[in-house]
Design goal:
- The chain contains twelve helices and seven strands.
- With 306 residues, the chain is of the alpha+beta class.
- The strands form two sheets. A four-stranded antiparallel sheet has the order 4-5-7-6. A three-stranded antiparallel sheet has the order 1-3-2.
- Helix 8 packs antiparallel against helix 9 and helix 11 packs across helix 12.
- The protein is rod-shaped.
- It starts with a helix and ends with a helix.
Length: 306
């Protein structure tokens, strides 16, 4: 079962939301179906949504005809087509909202919860969400272009301004911000998945921090190994040109320790010395060894050219 189906199942199972805000919920479901007005029809791969659509259509007004559900197979998937058979019934249902399908009648909404229920119905009709394990993306593929402006404005009023694009000649309103998606899921009644998304964000944040720390540690190790290699070369150069025994005691001790432990960090080298030395002190002595090695190389170069 896909994440999108799990999400729609949870919204469908939230019967208290549907019962408390029945008209707003039905309005979203019916308005955002494939047809609304003189023709009223929904196509969905979700059997529960098909049943809810039929129930919403028949429960609004006393219709004289019937609501019929047809089943067909498309691209290997079962699709449920639900339609109000009578044009007069379809018009009566639309009229119960004072709507002809060209916009959104906001006077249907009395409370913020009504708006959330309306969005829940709209999402069941034309919405989808990608599994947040892969990406944060929730969208509404609108059945009619005329819905884009008023629905976008409504979502913005609720505090969730959507992004907008066109896909295959259809207007799409979408969200990619995880906090906006959390808010939308909560107002649509998907409490459990909202909490799961929050937990997933925490997990991803911890994992990303751990990866950044690991990358930083790896970079520091590489840097230390590279620096250690240069220091060993300097010490070997000094040894060849003048002999380590001629170094001052503090430099000789450090040089010998570095040759014995080329992988050790500056702090570890400092702890090995007698008396112990700070990281800064160790680095200062390596600077002196580096300068001395450079002098040895320059002297050797002069001898070779002499």
């Amino acid at each position: 079962m896909t994440f999108n189906v799990l999400l729609k199942n949870e919204i469908l199972e939230n019967r208290p939301l549907r019962a408390r805000h029945k008209k707003a919920y039905a309005y979203g479901l019916l308005l955002f179906a494939q047809s609304f007005g003189g023709e009223m029809r929904l196509s969905t791969e979700h059997k529960g949504i098909a049943h809810l659509y039929a129930s919403a259509a028949t429960g609004l007004v006393g219709i004289s005809g019937s609501v019929t559900t047809y089943t067909r197979v498309q691209a290997g998937k079962t699709v449920y087509d639900v339609q109000v058979d009578s044009v007069q019934d379809a018009l009566a249902i639309a009229a119960s909202f004072g709507d002809g399908g060209e916009g959104i009648r906001t006077d249907v909404f009395k409370t913020d919860e009504d708006r959330g229920a309306f969005c829940a119905g709209a999402f069941l009709a034309c919405g989808s969400m990608i599994d947040p394990q892969n990406s944060y993306h929730l969208e509404f593929v609108l059945p009619r272009p005329a819905l884009a402006e008023p629905f976008s404005a409504l979502l913005a009023e609720m505090g969730y301004p959507p992004k907008r694009t066109t896909r295959r000649d259809q207007q799409v309103l979408y969200f990619r911000d995880s906090e906006q998606i959390e808010g939308m899921l909560a107002v649509m009644g998907a409490t459990r998945i909202t909490l799961e998304l929050m937990n997933l964000k925490i997990y991803k944040d911890i994992r990303n921090k751990a990866n950044r720390q690991s990358n930083c540690d790896t970079a520091n190790i590489d840097k230390a190994v590279s620096a250690g290699g240069r220091q060993v070369e300097d010490i070997q150069c000094i040894g060849r040109q003048m002999g380590l025994e001629r170094l001052d005691d503090d430099l000789r001790e450090l040089a010998e320790l570095r040759l014995q432990t080329p992988e050790a960090t500056l702090r570890e080298l400092g702890e090995m010395m007698n008396p112990p030395l700070t990281r800064s002190g160790v680095n200062h002595r390596f600077v002196r060894l580096g300068q001395l090695a450079q002098e040895c190389r320059e002297a050797a170069g002069k001898e070779n050219h002499g």
